[in-house]
Amino acid sequence: QVQLQESGPGLVKPSQTLSLTCAVSGDSITTNYYYWSWIRQAPGKGLEWVGYINYSGRYHYVSSLRSRTSISRDTAKNQLTLQLSSVTPEDTAVYYCTRQLVTAGGISFDRWGQGTQVTVSS
Q1: Mean predicted confidence (pLDDT) in 42-62
Q2: CA distance linking residue 42 with residue 26, whole number of Å
């Protein structure tokens, strides 16, 4: 039903800004009570949560990337965006767009995009 599709440049130069888009179909990104998170996985490493924007527009970023991260949404297009500035080769990773349902029973990561490879290199 709900599908998430990441897109954006596969190659970004160091010091530039990484910009990715997540197109959501099958449900509105404003639907209660969903959170929309960007998660990444660098080569040989585990999953790393980058940040989220929720159904009401509130957002939060992991402290280690907070100063460089911007997550926003376009409700008209039903899309999410991730901008990561001043990138370095350490930002090379597969980036995933995900959905979480937050209820009294807990947090469930119930949808994942296929992921998009981003390589930071000159």
Answers
A1: 97
A2: 29
